[in-house]
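Could you help me review a protein record that somebody else here produced? Here is the record exactly as it was handed to me:
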Amino acid sequence: MNTTLLVYVLGIYLAFRIAVCTVDTIFPLLLFLIPNLGILQISIGETSIPILNILMGIASLKVIAIYFFQKNQFGFYLVLGVFLFYEWSHVFYYDGLSVMLLLSWSAAVIYVYVYFYNSTQTYDHRKAVIYFIIGLIISTIYGILDFYQIYGTLLTNNATIRFKGGAGDPNYYAMYIMIALFTMLFLVNRASNTAIKFLYPLLLIFFTSFGVLSLSRMFLLVVSLLFMLLLLKVLLTLKKNRKIMKLLTFVVCLCLFPAVYFGSEFQAIFELLLSRFTDFADNPDLLTSNRNVLAETYSELMISNPFLALFGLGIQDYAGRSGIGLETHNILLEIFVVWGIVGFFIFVGFVLKMIKFVKRERAITRTSIICWLPFICMGISYMSINALSNESFFLLLLFAVKNIHVFDD
């Protein structure tokens, strides 16, 4: 599907919108783009750049101009400065393209951190969730049309054909599905319109079905675990989470009839999903898609060089500069490789500062486990995909942390 012209037009339109709209409108617009990162890219020379990166550069300039000197919170901005300075200390290893990518990466970090601190009173989580869901629906529709054009059908028993929507990768698409499923619970708890209440079970089934079609082992494991955790929590706090319980009950009722009537088709799908695990049970390399081999290779590289183990390679093009050629596909290993032991503690401090910065009247320890589900699914998902070098990671981190802050309000 040729979407080049549409991408350029959309990029110009969104750049104008971000330049003129309010700061709190920018974040939902950026979230809207994330599920479509695989298609929303422009070519500069031989390099493809997501329009999200360019727009975040504009967004960072805007929040700096509006917010940076309004509040005197030295400690909060000190954490940001140390984090950025530490990564920029690796710039001497970078080529020209990597320096440009580092500028884009830094803009994303600055935007997320500055906006996060200054938006406690004005942030609209409902709007952010709705924009992200709409972006994911568009990504899914694009994926259906593209998949149908290539294969002629969505129903195939070939475990190598995986649905990826407009995300460009089935594992990232599956993670976006999970984030949408669990942030949608924020909307469910606040739903009052009958038609809207009926829409949420349909969306849950719709998203879960396409998450299954991604054939992501990570999705199958994580969504099963977190839905069991959600059900347990709802049953233990039924009075407080009655709307979520109604949602889950309605979803089960909606699924019972097709499960019985199309029993053989459901069995075939189940066997296909099971094959994602059993076909490679005797070969750990294939079961993990060689992630264990990558982990061993990177670990040997870091252990062999004490300086790298302490300070890392730097985040930009670390796969190429390491000589390994592939990224780590594991956020913990990625932190160790790009920033070393010292950088690991700096990054943890950066994230903890964001999580800790809540409204003073409600301690983080008093939040519900339900509001943590998007954050948990991101944490587990990023154990098998790349994280820190992607600007979208920081947007999703902000989204998940904001869900923790506002869910019980």
Notes: The chain is about 70% helix and 0% strand. The chain has a mean pLDDT of 82. The beta strands are 41-44, 47-50.
